Amino acid sequence: MKTLSEEHKRKISEAKMGHPVSDETRKKISQKLTGRKLSNKTRTKISQALTGKTKTEEHKRKIAISMKGNQNARKKQLDGEPYQEFYKLRDQFQEYQNRKESK
Questions:
Q1: pLDDT tens digit sequence for 6-46
Q2: CA–CA separation, 44 and 33 (whole Å)
Q3: Distance from the Cα of residue 11 to its chain's centroid
Q4: How far apart are CA 79 and CA 87, in angstroms?
Q5: How many Å apart are CA 89 and CA 81, to the nearest integer?
Q6: Cβ–Cβ under 8 Å, residues 74 and 86
Q7: Quick one: pLDDT band at residue 67, thresholds 50, 70, 90?
Q8: What CA–CA distance (Å, rounded) separates 98 from 11?
């Protein structure tokens, strides 16, 4: 197989940007990537890229809502601060809902 130059790769990438992808293709990609194990090197890179990014209060509430009742997600947070943070956010969201309903 012929090796592509960096310029050629860039041109291919630019040509494909903005190209719509069908639902069928999205499902195929999803199925292909499901269950895939990331290497430690890749996990480290992702971790470094996300380190320092802050989440808005709304985003934190949405995360808390999505985790509510999800035992698998909660198992990861059973120890230490994250577990306490989860309950703090849940309580904040419940207060928010109560205020919203009382109006």
A1: 999 999 999 988 888 899 999 999 999 999 999 999 999 99
A2: 19
A3: 29
A4: 13
A5: 12
A6: yes
A7: confident
A8: 53
What pTM was estimated for this model as a whole?
A: 0.37
The DSSP 8-state label assigned to residue 56 in this structure reads: -
- Cα-Cα-Cα-Cα torsion 84, 87, 89, 95, nearest 10 degrees, comes to -140
Closest CA to 64 of 82, 51, 48: 82
Residues 64 and 86: beta-carbon distance below 8 Å: yes
Pairwise CA distance, residues 44 & 50, whole Å: 10
Domain borders along the chain are 54-103
Task: Report which of 51, 73, 48, 46 is spatially closest to residue 62, judged by C-alpha positions.
Answer: 73
Q: What is the DSSP letter of 77?
A: T
Judge whether 68 and 77 are in contact, CB under 8 Å.
no
